[in-house]
Specification:
Strand content of chain B: 5-15%
Strand content of chain A: 5-15%
Number of strands of chain A: 2
Oligomer: heterodimer
Radius of gyration of chain A: 13 Å
Largest sheet of chain B: 5 strands, mixed
Distance between the termini of chain A: 21 Å
Shape of chain A: globular
Number of helices of chain B: 15
Structural class of chain A: mainly alpha
Radius of gyration of chain B: 27 Å
Helix content of chain B: 25-40%
Helix content of chain A: 40-55%
Chain lengths: 105, 436
């Protein structure tokens, strides 16, 4: 476990750069993750993906399946990769402050 | 060596090639660095790997942390992140990620290609590999996060080489050596494996499935890549016409001029070859006979198990009308029990550009991607929704070959349109004829 200080905020993160506590999420976190994840500028589409992920997580306690994310955002998987080059798991979920994907990856 | 490894040292004795000796050799090569390589990960990574493994031998538990999410931009898989849970004691393996590299069909290599890969991995990784992972990939074992993009850049730009698959996607397909060095191959496994790997690159690199999905290609029912047990869609070569018999060669086997099974049992004296006992009587469908010096096969009853061909490869050959069977649903036990592939398509031609085969694949995916639950393998979806549903979505007409035996319970579903009058019934109408 490590701590990251960014613009006056402190985040507890793991080796992969995921925040350990969803409650630490704030707009500064987005700004901090942006560069690591190969994103030049946050657009409304980025924000929509983040919003959808967070709403789904808050309601269901898990991240949505890729197919569900596509349906909710109406973005094809290809477009999600255009927005988040690391993909929906490592890119978007990390930025949204969701827990690290697990299982056979 | 940096760490004492008394337990591991015991594995240096005995005749089998010792992975411990090999790792120690690699540790020494890195320590000496006679080629003046500017190692991009700790020089003592291999020594620390031996150290952490020794610790696991001592306390009987793993020392890798849970999970790990790393990768390269553009892909959702291909790299398995791993971190040591004793990074202070073993800093060389604090990061120890595994990279999966797509392997060529049948795993044929040139020294030049392998040397290039080794040069890259010596510089940017531990120099340790797994040749190969069970799914088929070349496995680079052990590097740090900052090196991932570097390795990926060099693989793609210098060696024209891509990563393999990991995560909930199409994993790296693998094949038996097929017609490259086997007279039993009923189709070109390497050609089909390569073509489908290229066709579905997107599905391989960017996870879009409910769970993992594997293809494997066996040239014949011998199953040298074990597709029936280790792939969600298994392609197994077969033929439709007659087994070709060379009666003279049959006589050569009977006369003892040719060893049965190409000499596979020559390590022990099993007596003279007895065609009756070793072939005819062992045929599962009892469709062979040897009379008057002539071997005959009732091909209509042959199930193409390969036994007679395996025993007398010089005398019996696969038919000329060739193709493959497609079986679906193999998986390991988690969650609801192990499965092997179930026959879906008894026979399909294997001809470029493989459109018929791709149609089957895509129909299966359309169904599973829509209906599959999170982390539900195809085999489990088939159990949950029924083989009938799989047949419907693939447009396959049910036939006797789809089952080993008919069901024994009578819980049979009918579709409403199959039943005269449908399901909407009026109880009052019933009461007119049957008092309460």
């Amino acid at each position: 476990m490590a701590q990251v200080d960014f613009k006056g905020k402190t985040f507890d993160v793991d080796e992969d750069g995921f925040i350990l506590d969803y409650n630490q999420f704030c707009d500064e976190w987005i700004e901090y993750v942006k560069d690591q994840e190969g994103i030049d500028e946050m657009t409304d589409e980025h924000k929509l993906v983040i919003k959808v992920l967070q709403e789904y997580y808050e309601k269901n306690g898990i991240a949505p399946m890729v197919r569900v994310l596509s349906k909710l955002t109406k973005f094809k998987l290809k477009h999600i990769y255009e927005l988040f080059p690391s993909g929906p798991g490592k890119g978007a979920c990390k930025m949204a402050g969701l827990p690290k994907p697990t299982g056979c990856v | 060596m940096k760490h004492e490894t008394p337990l591991l040292n015991q594995l240096e004795s005995g005749p089998w090639p010792s992975f411990v000796s090999d790792l120690k050799q690699q540790a020494e090569v890195r320590a000496k660095n006679e080629e003046n390589i500017e190692f991009q990960i700790p020089v003592d990574a291999v020594e620390d790997l031996l150290g952490v493994l020794e610790l696991s031998y001592v306390d009987g538990t793993t020392h890798w942390k849970h999970g790990g999410i790393v990768g390269v931009f553009g892909y959702g898989g291909g790299v398995i992140g791993r971190y040591c849970d004793q990074p202070q004691n073993f800093p060389g393996v604090a990061h120890f990620h595994t990279m999966r590299v797509a392997q060529p069909g049948g795993k044929y290599y040139t020294a030049e290609y392998l040397r290039d890969l080794c040069d890259l991995w010596d510089l940017r990784g531990s120099g340790i590999t797994n040749m190969h992972g069970s799914t088929g990939d070349i496995i680079f074992i052990g590097t740090t996060t900052p090196q991932l993009e570097e390795v990926f850049y060099e693989l793609t730009h210098k060696f024209n080489q891509d990563l393999g698959g990991s995560g909930s996607n199409l994993r790296t397909p693998a094949d038996c050596i097929g017609s490259s060095r086997c007279e039993y191959a009923c189709y070109d496994t390497q050609a089909l494996c390569y073509d489908l790997t290229q066709e579905y690159q997107d599905e391989l690199h960017r996870p879009a499935f409910p769970y993992k999905f594997k293809f494997k290609f066996d040239g014949c029912p011998n199953g040298c890549v074990a597709s029936i047990a280790r792939s969600d869609l298994s392609f197994i070569g077969t033929w439709k016409d007659e087994i070709r018999i060379d009666q003279e060669a049959v006589q050569a086997y009977i006369g003892g001029e040719m060893p049965p099974n190409a000499g596979a049992h020559s390590g022990r004296d099993w007596g003279a070859f007895d065609i009756q006992k070793e072939v005819i009587a062992l045929c599962p469908s009892d469709c062979m006979k040897y009379e008057g010096g002539k071997l005959e096969i009732n091909n209509k009853e042959c199930v193409r198990c390969m036994h007679c061909i395996n025993v007398m490869p010089r005398a019996l050959r696969i038919g000329n009308d060739r193709g493959c069977s497609i079986l679906a649903g193999a998986k390991a036990p988690i969650l609801d029990g192990a499965q092997m592939g179930s026959l879906l398509i008894p026979f399909i031609k294997v001809e470029e550009p493989y459109d018929e085969i791709k149609e089957v694949i895509e129909n299966v995916w359309d169904w599973w991607m829509e209906e599959g639950k999170n982390r539900e393998r195809l085999g489990e979806l088939i159990k949950r929704q029924g083989l009938q549903k799989l047949l419907e979505v693939t447009g396959v007409t049910p036939d006797a070959r789809h089952v080993q035996e008919p069901r024994s319970n009578p819980y049979i579903f009918w579709k409403e349109e199959e039943v005269e009058g449908g399901w909407d019934r009026d109880i009052d109408e019933y009461r007119k004829h049957h008092q309460r």
